[in-house]
Amino acid sequence: MNINGKTRLFAIIGNPVSHSLSPAMHNAAFAELGINAAYVPIKADNIEQTVAGLRTLGFVGASVTVPFKETVMGCLDNIDPTAAKIGAVNTLAFRQTDQEKICICNGYNTDWIGSNSALAQVIDLKGATALVIGAGGAAKAVVFGLLTAGAKVTIANRTQEKAEGLALELGCDSIPFENIATTSADILINTTTVGMAPHSGRSPVASELLPNYQVVMDIVYAPLQTTLLKQAIACGCKVIDGLDMLLYQGVEQFRIWTGVQPPPSVMRKALLKAIDKL
Ligand code: ATR
Potential cystine with 155: which of 81, 108, 174, 228 (Cβ 3.0-4.6 Å)? Predict the structure, then answer.
């Protein structure tokens, strides 16, 4: 990497952030396309001060991760209507205005696009049925994406009131968690942390129920092949691992920042290399 006075700066802001795979993914795409840019992790304590700092330092773009996806919305000049509807921003784009010499900060949400693009690799979402496990922030982006693409969605969550609340807010169905045993759909998506290391032996859905689905997606990526995905493969389901949502939300971020479509294969390769070092 040849850093000089013309290098364009990008960051991921969050807390914690040192484990983030996004620097590897974006820097690989910059290198592949010969773009003079660098993307760094920044651990933030105060989101307002951090966004103000990025503006002052002339950063071009930033990813926003846990726990700031909602609170960052109070620090922006414009919020994309879709991000406003989802109630979370994961992408910032800074624009210097020539005349007034001020920096405008726009906020976007690319998580739902990441989820839809990952799914679109293996299934047509229009008219498909989907069961989404979980009702947190990740579930919200996934469900929003599915509904936008014309899928019919049902949510199941350990805490049923949260499933009911999210279903009401986004306009879909919810079922009690135990009713998963009598449910089937084209797509099953785990948006919870169940199965994540160090509890990688766990799965949110019993293996004997997996033949009820054609496609199984897990947003957990450590380990990459979760117990849920291993069992889904054994049942003959098509599977999508947790790196693909991360990858495709990053592809969309890159497009917003540079106007260029980056190479997903290069970015995925970089993610796989980085995940090995976690
Ligand atoms: P995120 O923003 O990453 O989605 P979150 O908002 O904390 O994180 O949501 C985590 C989701 O994982 C929730 O749906 C949570 O269920 P509850 O609403 O009942 O807390 C779910 N989850 C976490 N641990 C779980 C477990 N052991 N079993 C089932 N669901 C779990």
Answer: 174
